[in-house]
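Now for a concrete sample entry.
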Amino acid sequence: IDMLPSYLRNIAYAFPYAHTIDASRAILIRGVGLEAISSDVLFLVGWAVGIFAIGVIMFRRSMRS
């Protein structure tokens, strides 16, 4: 991701894959704790909650039809 142009780097960080890789590298290579990757974890939890909410809404709509 670091080799991408800045506009593509911004797009990459809008998706959970980049945050997962950053957090994994920080834990496995640098040996950091949860406090160092808390922003990545918070982003991933927010993404999961958002996707879950969208799934629930879509499921409810499909059950009404």
Remarks:
- The helical segments are 6-12, 16-30, 38-64.
- The two ends are 43 Å apart (CA to CA).
- The mean pLDDT is 95.
